Amino acid sequence: MRRVLIDNDNLLGPLRxxxxxxxxxxxxxxxxxxxxxxxxxxxxxxxxxxxxxxxxLYQDAGNFRSAQFWTDRALEWSYAAxxxxxxxxxxxxxxxxxxxxxxxxxxIDLAEAASRQARPDxxxxxxAATNGAYGYALxxxxxxxxxxxxxxxxxxxxxxxxPSFSWGSWMDDAYIEIHRARxxxxxxxxxxxxxxxxxxxxxxxPMRHRDKGVYLARESLAYVGAREPxxxxxxxxxxxxxxxxxxxxxxxxxxxxxxxxxxxxxxVPAVTEFxxxxxxxxxxxx
Length: 286
Known about the structure:
This protein has three domains: 1-81; 83-162, Serine Threonine Protein Phosphatase 5, Tetratricopeptide repeat (Alpha Horseshoe); 189-286, no CATH class. The two termini are 31 Å apart. The longest helix has 24 residues, at 37-60. 78% of the residues lie in helices and 0% in strands. By secondary structure, it is mainly alpha-helical. The chain contains 14 helices and no strands.
């Protein structure tokens, strides 16, 4: 059931999945009242996984307060479940959430905490390093951001992964390079960021539909920063179609920023088309 909900989120966005995930958490908590021993521990583990997923869904929906609530519950419950790998993964996820909230120092601190706990034969160290890199970019430290991303590449290339380990199956070289492009944009290197997004997006697997929309939106912002409004608007329209299908607030937030930045180029036909389409989407949602 959790796998189906994750797949639906990737295709359709978070808003349709959140009620089902919260319902599952309530059902599991009720079941736990009737079980003890190994069965109770297994239910605690499953409940923790659902809480982490719920935090992610709210994060993608742009509701950071609820995202923090559920991710904090997941961290708390992971200790009770006694699964150190899951605790480490959730610490890395909290670093990612802090980055989305533009709290660079907290993103760095949580990533370092996750790195200290990460088993060497898992992707956890690479996940932590990638999220910590964005924290460094938010603080303007491009050197450490690049070093963390290089480390993430090394960790997923040079280590023999535990074949039974499932957390962070999406962590690959393309994902790391997406975050390098985001860091480049954050520190003001817009042309290289745009090129980095374009190359990494081409290597994304098809099932990461919603994520592709997020990355397209960020690529469009990089092109605005590089003073290429027509290219920015064209890519923004691609992201807009995915935003409409998924309801992802992460995409819409990026596109709202794009809309504002494109205002100075209203005479460009592609810009006019994007801005009118974006206004239509916002009016429809309202």
